[in-house]
Structure formats: structure tokens, C-alpha cells
Amino acid sequence: MESPSWLLLSAALLASLAFLSVIFIRRRGKQLKFPPGPKPWPIIGNLNLIGSLPHQSLHKLSQRYGPLMQLKFGSYPVLVASSSEMAKEFLKSHDQIFATRPPHAAGKYVMYNYSDVLWAPYGPHWRQGRKIYLNELFSSKRLESFEYIRVEEMRAFVSRLYGLSGKPVVLIEQLSRLTLSNISRMVLGNKYFGVSGDDQVVSNSIVSLQELQEMINEFFFLTGVFNIGDWIPGLDFLDLQGYVKRMKALKKKLDRFQDHVFDEHEQKKKESSKDFVARDMVDLLLQLADDPDLDVKLTYDALRGLTLDLISGGTDSTAVTVEWVISELIKQPQLITQATQELDRVIGRERLVEERDIPQLPYLDAIMKETMRKHPVAPLLAPHMAMEDCKVAGYDIRKGTRVFINTWGIGRDPSLWEQPEEFRPERFLGRNIDVKGRSFELLPFSAGRRMCPAYNLGLKMIQLSIANLLQTFNWKLPDNAKGQDLNMEEAPGITAPRKFPLVAVMEPRLPLHLYEI
Ligand code: HEM
């Protein structure tokens, strides 16, 4: 517990900082020169303010103040780009200049001093990490080799849900378990977490499912949090909000987990010596660490940093997207009918949908894209930072400027989308808009050098989950509630999950033997 005097001191310090920032804005306001047209809006902005501002409010601000909004706090200007043209400027035309991340405490204290890829600055370590991801871990061949894991986990998931049919279910809990199981097996080779009351015994579990989920949640909270020390140089040692303390505590827990995983993998590698065959991503990383030709040595910290990227990157993003899909569809049952008609026509009712069927399901693809338009998991992507002074679309932007791409706002731009507030998958049918970084009006995985390197895995997991959920169950709200009564608020933050988890009731719609594992 923090003492009241400490809180008072922090409040006083914050107030004086806010005052100083206003002065700072006035004095330095001319540094970013804007051409004629709507002027930027100089508010005292920061990541936390942007994060805690409901996305709707930020969208309204950008509609009023233009597609490039300037916010300022402390020493660093912050830009919010809210049009597809502006996104293209930053992520394509000037991609290289904005391909770094701002430094922040979580990168230092949790990510082994920026030894991961997500928060690493542009440079040799980041370049090599990305190369490993793209060529080794997320290549089509590698992902195919893990397909059996995704199939087994999907079967187990459908079977678990079958056991819950007819009862109200908190869907996100089930989805998180599915994605965490998938990711853990692909990355770590095993689950390493136990589930209480579960028949499935995980011999080498070191944490419970809940503990692992809590670590990941804490990780996301701390990497997105506004930590004063990151914005006012010189104040980092004070840790006014206690976040650095929490980061260090989280790192200890993560270390314990990761050390256990790496010890086991090292041991197996030693035992099999020359016959060693990499079975999971950690094995692959360990093999690469022995490669004398690597440009940058893969230290133990780098191994742990990359592994942390892999575990944290895919878990929430996938589960949150699928929860939004079902939430939107349950409000409009006629869309579910359309999707199941397509599934029945293409696959029939005698087998479960598989990854190879996905290209034959255009309506399902349209549902996914419409969800990503309306509910992008990362509404502001991850922060980018200018590595040098530059000119973008006529604006002078100085080195160190933080840039957020407002994909949430772009997804609601009325010049791009007719009636953007409506959920209408049809808008994507017959249109050549993809989610792979080529269409700047739809950027769930971003674009350019910093684009999500695992987008193909993310897509596979999302598409297969939606297809299976719709093929195997009928969906309704508990207590015969009507679709229009479902609350669709988002939780504010750097990710955009539902504010209130979806509770739904499922009934099986296929022959019962298909629900057996
Ligand atoms: C629904 C699924 C996913 C979505 C929507 C998503 C979205 C994103 C976004 C928006 C970024 C930031 C791009 C930028 O800064 O411009 C990103 C980066 C990243 N994602 Fe994903 N992601 C997903 C799945 C995954 C998975 C499954 C993994 C790993 C297992 C992963 C690992 C990463 C990593 C390592 C980066 C950092 C790239 C860099 O900074 O160079 N993501 N992702």
C-alpha cells in the first residue's frame, strides 16, 4: 500500500509536470510546422491519456482536428494518424524512418533490456530477430508442420464446449485457453500449465492456466502503461507510480517459468546430442544460438526475449478477435444463418471444418475482415518513433516524435466505409481488400517493416476458430435476451477487448460423434 503522503507528493509532482508541459507546448509548439489547413490540437497528451480515452472520443477528436493530430507531453511530441493516406505515409512512404520504437521501462525491465523484437529498437538485433521469425518460425512450411497441434487443440476445445452446451458460458475464458494451449505447444513444445479439475494431466506444468494468463495480462498492462519516467527524462529512478517495481516482480515470475522451460529443452538437447531434432520454436531458437555464422549472437536474454514475444503476441489478440466475431453475429442471427449455409454447402455436416477448407469460405473471410475493421485488436497499433528529422505530407516532424496509427478511426472513416457503425460483412464480398499490409484502409496487423511477423499464424487461428464455432454450435444469449440488448462497449486501453465478457449459450448442430475427441 502506498502511504497518503507519498500519494500527495506524486499528485503535486504530476500537477507541476502538467503545468510545465503546457509551457513546453507554447514554447516549442512551432517545432512541428503544419501547412495551411486544420491546425493540430495541442493537448497534454500521453500514451496513458490516449489509451484511457475511449476510442470513440479519440475518433471524434480526429474528425474535428484532421487526420494528423498532435498531442504533447513532456519532451516528446506525439502524432495520431487517422486516415488511410496518413497511415500509408508513415508505414510505407517513410517506413524506414519510423521503424523504431520509443524506449520505455517495460522494454528495459521486462523484455530483458529490449532483447525481444516487439519492443526492440531498429538495429541489428531487431533485424536478425525478424529474419528468424519470418524465415524460420513463421514460414509456411513450419506453420504447416504445426497444423496437427492446431487440429488437436481445436477438437479438444469443441469437445469441452459440447460439455458446456445449454449452459451460459464466458466465451473469452474458453478462447484464451484454446489460444494459450496452441501457442504453448507450438512455441514451448508442451503446455507447461495445469488446469485444476481437468482430466488432462500436464506432467511438466509449473504454473496454473490462471497464473500464466495473469502473467500475460500483467505483461500487456505494463507494456502499455504510461510510466512517467519514460516521458520525463531524469525521473525514471523515482518510479513514482510503482510500475517499475511491478515490472521487476513480473520479470522474476517470468524468469522462473522461462528458466524451467529452457532447462528442460537444454537437457533434452544434450541427451539426444547429434540426433537432436527441433520439435518446437524453443528448440529452433536453441539450435540457432549454436550457429557461429549469426550476425548477432543469440544470448540467453535474447532467447528469453524472443520466447516472451511468441507467448504473449498471439494469445490475447486471437481470443479477443473471435469473441468480437461471436458478439457481432449473435446480434444478427441472419448472418449466422448465412455463414452456416456456406459451411454446410462446402463442408457438409459429417466432418469438422479444416484449415484447407478456409479458401473456399468467402463469407467467413468477410466476417473476419468486418470484425477486424470494427474491432481492431490494436486500435493504435504499437508506437512507432521517428529516427531522424523528416517531412511527411508537408509536415516537419522532428526526431523522437512518437507516432500512433489510429486503425480504429480508419475503420470508421465514412469516406472509406458506408455506414461504418453497422456490422455488414457483405461490404467485403467481391472487394480486393486484404489484411496483409497492402490495403491501408484495413490494417489489423499493420504494414511495413514493423508489421506483425506472425500474421499468417494469427489468421489461421482466427479463421479456424470462427469456422469451428459456427459449424458446430447454434448460438444465443442467456435467458432469451435479444441481440439488441447486448452491451457492445469496449474497454479503453492499448488493446480493445469487450468491456463486459460475452456470456453465450451454445447448442450442438452436428452429429454427436463429431464432438468426441
Ligand atoms: C489476431 C492476431 C494478431 C494481431 C491482430 C496482431 C497484431 C499486431 C500488431 C498491430 C503489431 C504492431 C505492428 C506495428 O507496430 O506497426 C504486431 C506486432 C507483432 N506481433 Fe502480432 N498480431 C497477432 C498475432 C501475433 C502472434 C500469433 C504472434 C506470435 C506468436 C505475434 C507476434 C508479434 C510480434 C513479435 C510483433 C512485433 C513486430 C516488430 O516490432 O517488428 N502476433 N502484431
From TrEMBL:
Keywords: Heme, Iron, Membrane, Metal-binding, Monooxygenase, Oxidoreductase, Transmembrane, Transmembrane helix. Its cofactor is heme. The chain crosses the membrane at residues 6-25. The keyword Transmembrane helix applies. It comes from the Eukaryota. InterPro entries: Cyt_P450, Cyt_P450_CS, Cyt_P450_E_grp-I, Cyt_P450_sf. Gene3D superfamilies: Cytochrome P450. This is Flavonoid 3'-monooxygenase-like. It comes from Hibiscus sabdariffa.
